[in-house]
Every structure is written in C-alpha cells, then in structure tokens.
C-alpha cells in the first residue's frame, strides 16, 4: 500500500518523518513557505579550472572516524516549504544528537541518547516524553554512500567544481533508480517504491575530503513533487548528548 505524505502526520509521528527523509537518504530551516527561502537558494560560482582533487579521489578519502556535524534541512511539497530541521548529530559512531523540527508554528525537539529518544512539543513549557529507539535513523542524514553510486553513473554525473560559502566542492548529480538506491539502502529503496516513485534525482556537493556539504533530493510521491535540501557545517569531534530529563523522571 502506498503512503500519502501529509505534513500533519510528519510532525505528529517521528517515524513518519524518518520515512519521509529516508527515502532520500543524508548526513548534512524555514517552517512555512512564507518564512524564508530554501537552504539550497545560495548562489554558487562554477569553475572551469581543473579541480585540485578528482571527485572520485575526494569521495574515496571520506573518513571513517567519528565526528559531529551541524545539519540544516528543508522539506518542500508541491513547491511549498512545510518542514525545517536543524540538528547537531554524531556519525561514524553511536548515533546521538539533538534536533529541532518545525512545521508551521509547531516545533518538535528531539534528543537522541545511547538508549532512548526524548521528544518535546510546546517549547520550554512542554514536557519531555521518553520513547524507545529507533524512531529517528542515522540514514536520514548520512549521504556518504550515495556519492560512489552517483559516480558510477559515468562522466555525466560530474558537474564540475564550485565554490559555496568559500569552500571548494565537487558537484555530483544524477538519477538513482530503485536498483541503485538499493545499493545504498534497502530501506531507502522500499520507501521510494512504496510511494509510487521509480527513483530520486540527487545533487550532492562534496569537499576535497569527501565530506558532503550540500545536497538536494527530488522525487514524486503519490503524484506530489517533493524536494529535500540539506546543508552540513561545523564538522568536529563527536559530542555527548545527555538525557534532557533526570533518569526515572
């Protein structure tokens, strides 16, 4: 049975949010269309000069050591923004972090610890609810596995070198059908297929160290055009995220 993408469901159920983002896969805000432009709107400068590092070499350098990164993500349906996510997440280690997800005037805060998730709606006056793991998945944000699959599409996937926010990045882009999605994640493929899509269009910008800096993912779910944009910054050592409520409270 195909799922319909409904903003209300996305805010209410973290699992629905995870499924929505997962079908586009990432590791890299604006609560409504009126609140501001997409994170992908920043202008870029394209260079025709030979890049310092071949994109395949850059992707091969992607480190396996644990790290933390800040993520900004916007989800659009039918050309209108309905969800913004800001997060600080650990990767290549136990998936923990802190997120804020906004739909319209509603905000859901999420803290992910080693053994549970904590959700709060209503801001500082709201109460935290402890939930079992996993409702939010690392694969929502971790795009590392997608770059090699894009490169496997051939020379047409290499769109050149650009400078974004002062960082030299390799622009990779192409269409990933269900089989190629399956190479990255069986769950990503299943989610895309369940929504009536035959694949996704992915643009990914990686730096010379193979780290994803930006991503844009487009697909059509049950006849609705969807766009997810992501921006990643402030890479650093892994961080500790404690429970927001006392143990046993």
Write a brief caption for the model.
This protein is an alpha+beta fold.
Can you describe this structure?
The chain has helices at 7-12, 14-22, 55-60, 146-151, 178-184, 186-194; strands at 45-47, 67-77, 80-91, 97-103, 106-112, 117-121, 129-131, 158-164, 167-177, 199-207, 212-221, 224-236. It is an alpha+beta fold. Strands 1-8-9-10-11-12-2-3-4-5-6-7 form a twelve-stranded antiparallel beta sheet. The termini are far apart.
Layout of helices and strands, plus pairs?
Blueprint: H1 7-12, H2 14-22, E1 45-47, H3 55-60, E2 67-77, E3 80-91, E4 97-103, E5 106-112, E6 117-121, E7 129-131, H4 146-151, E8 158-164, E9 167-177, H5 178-184, H6 186-194, E10 199-207, E11 212-221, E12 224-236
Helix pairs in contact: 5-6
């Amino acid at each position: 049975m195909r799922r319909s993408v409904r903003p209300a469901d996305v805010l209410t159920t973290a699992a629905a949010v995870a499924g929505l983002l997962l079908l586009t896969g990432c590791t890299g805000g604006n609560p409504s269309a009126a609140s501001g432009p997409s994170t992908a709107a920043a202008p870029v400068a394209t260079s025709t000069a030979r890049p310092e590092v071949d994109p395949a070499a850059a992707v091969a350098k992607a480190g396996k050591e644990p790290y933390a990164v800040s993520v900004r993500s916007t989800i659009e349906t039918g050309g209108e923004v309905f969800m913004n996510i800001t997060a600080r997440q650990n990767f290549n280690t136990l998936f923990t972090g802190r997120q804020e997800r906004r739909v319209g005037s509603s905000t859901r805060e999420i803290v992910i610890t080693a053994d549970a998730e904590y959700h709060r709606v209503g801001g500082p006056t709201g109460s935290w609810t402890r939930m079992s793991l996993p409702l939010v998945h690392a694969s929502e944000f971790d795009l590392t596995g997608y770059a090699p699959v894009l490169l496997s599409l051939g020379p047409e996937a290499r769109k050149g070198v650009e400078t974004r926010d002062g960082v030299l990045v390799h622009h990779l882009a192409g269409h990933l059908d269900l089989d190629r999605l399956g190479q990255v994640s069986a769950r990503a493929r299943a989610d895309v297929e369940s929504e009536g899509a035959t694949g996704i269009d992915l643009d990914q910008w990686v730096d010379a160290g193979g780290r994803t800096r930006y991503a844009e993912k487009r697909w059509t779910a049950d006849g609705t055009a969807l766009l997810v944009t992501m921006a990643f910054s402030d890479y650093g050592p892994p961080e500790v995220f404690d429970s927001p409520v006392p143990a046993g409270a």
